[in-house]
Design a protein that fits this description.
The chain is an all-alpha fold and 105 residues long. It is 74% helix and 0% strand. It is built from six helices and no strands. The termini are far apart.
């Protein structure tokens, strides 16, 4: 099990092996997209900064197959839940709304 899978499993032990594999793949893809080695906290904070500045989470979906968009949004949603103590309640609510809006579109 790699760092990404271990990290996700630590916070979401109920996930099936297939879902865990998809989440770790997308977390790795996001980390690579932002030029980061394994650092989920920094990745989350970077994504949040861009989302709040742009009032959009389109940058989370990056490029890829349509179903990957929802997986990446789910991964990001899990990250903001995991690191919620680093996020103000107002920003948390805004991010939650932005994620919902992106899923609908």
């Amino acid at each position: 099990m790699d760092n990404y899978s271990s990290f996700i499993k630590q916070f979401r032990p109920e996930l099936s092996p297939k879902t865990l594999s998809q989440y770790s793949k997308q977390l790795r893809y996001l980390s690579d997209g932002y030029g980061l080695d394994f650092n989920p906290l920094q990745l989350t904070l970077d994504i949040i900064d861009i989302a709040i500045e742009d009032l959009s989470v389109k940058h989370v979906t990056l490029v890829g197959l349509p179903y990957e968009k929802n997986i990446r949004l789910a991964v990001f949603r899990n990250l903001i839940n995991i690191f919620s103590d680093h996020i103000t309640p107002k920003d948390y609510q805004l991010l939650d709304s932005l994620i919902l809006e992106e899923k609908i579109n």
